[in-house]
Amino acid sequence: MQPPQRLRGMEDSGPEVARAMTRVGQALADLLAGYGYLSVDVPVLEATELFLRKSGGELASRMYTFVDPGGHRVSIRPEFTSSVVRAYLEGLNPGPLPQRWQYQGPVVRYERDVEGSRRQHTQVGAELIGASGPWADAEVLALACKGLSSLGISGHSLVVGHLGFIGALLESLGLSDRARLFLLASVSSLKEEGSAREEVYRRARSLGLLPVEGQEAEPPSALAGEEAMAFLKRLAESDAPAVGVRGPEEIRERYMRKQRQPDDPARFSDALDTVARVVRVQGRPEEAVRQVRGLITAGVGRRELDSLEEGLEALSGYDLQAPVTLDFGLAR
Question: Which of 100, 122, 218, 222 has its CA 20 to 30 Å from the CA of residue 310?
């Protein structure tokens, strides 16, 4: 009888590799400890809902999920952050904020059967909990960069994006919620030269975001704000009093009609051009910010740009030993 074979995407490690992994893990742990990050540990198994709340469908198809003997739907952790935040909310190591935690251990994510793909990884990471602002951004970015240097790796660089600014820019352009979401999801496409702009415009028409001559636009249910719609549905079904002169059901119907109305083509086209110009800006941080300020209306996204500049200034106080590039089109 042939013995069971190792699963595809899983690896065995011999003594030499195991020793090297231990050295790498310890070097990164020492670096993080030097910045005040304390070690924590969390379970390998969690309720599936925990990961879905954070990542939704993006991660669902890559998780190892099953029903345990007790009838609970559980998943092997595909990452640490969800579990670490859950642990904090449940009272692990309570104390004054911010909390600096570090962790390391195996995570499992399904990958396609391609040469060299791995489905189990050792992840080392850190969470800065209860802190916000430019200094916090700078600290986390610096740790990511210094982690490589602490392992003797050189030749790396740090590329920084800021979706907060892109969101503020889209907010100022007078578009519907669904059009803003569509353009945000199209950032990576708009970075491409050539016919990228026309292709994004064509997709907007096909999704019913823009009116098509001689055709009735299809209701773009997937872009109409599912969470908002669910909230309004619950409101309509509740005993909540009328808001102003309109009842919950009327508010919901009005919202649905508004979301299904196509955007003005001229306004959408102008917004598309503006976003395309901005997301193609990348380079030295000072020059990139200056260039973007020249592309937008005065005051638009000013708070976000000021915060970005403060973060980059704080980052310059760390000895990164790596060049920093600002890329306004950096998006998932």
Answer: 100
- The amino acid at 32: L
Identify any residues that bridge with 327 across adjacent strands, giving them in sequence order: 282
pLDDT at 34 over 70: yes
pLDDT band for position 222 (50/70/90)? Answer: very low
Average pLDDT over residues 150-160: 94
Could you tell me if 146 and 31 are in contact, meaning their C-beta atoms sit under 8 angstroms apart? yes
Residues 27 and 116: their CA atoms lie apart, in Å, by 26
Question: CA 37, CA 31: separation in Å to the nearest integer?
Answer: 9
Half-sphere exposure of 117 toward its Cβ, with a 13 Å CA cutoff? 12
Q: Are 325 and 157 in contact (CB under 8 A)?
A: yes
- Mark residue 120 as left, alpha or beta (left: phi above 0; alpha: psi -120 to 50; beta: remaining): beta
Intra-chain end-to-end CA distance of the chain, in Å: 47
Look at 310 and 298; give whichever has higher pLDDT.
Answer: 310
Which two structure tokens, joined as six digits, stand for 296? 């937008």
Q: Specify whether the CB–CB gap between 44 and 72 falls below 8 A.
A: no
Q: Within a 13 Å sphere around the CA of 118, how many CA atoms are in the beta-carbon half?
A: 10
DSSP letter, residue 167:
H
Task: Say if residue 243 is exposed, middle or buried (CB neighbours under 10 Å; 0-12, 13-18, 19+).
Answer: exposed
Counting DSSP H helices and E strands in the chain, the numbers are: 14, 9
Does 235 or 146 have the greater pLDDT score?
A: 146
Q: Are strands 158-160 and 324-327 parallel, antiparallel or unpaired?
A: parallel
For the chain, helix, strand, coil in percent to 5 are: 45, 15, 40
Which of 128-132, 166-170, 231-235 is the least confident region? 231-235
- Please check the confidence at residue 205 and state whether its pLDDT lies above 80: yes
Q: Where are the alpha helices (DSSP H) in the chain?
A: 15-34, 48-55, 57-60, 81-89, 134-150, 163-171, 177-185, 187-190, 196-206, 226-237, 248-260, 265-279, 285-293, 302-315
Find the Cα–Cα–Cα–Cα dihedral 272, 277, 279, 285, rounded to 10°. -150
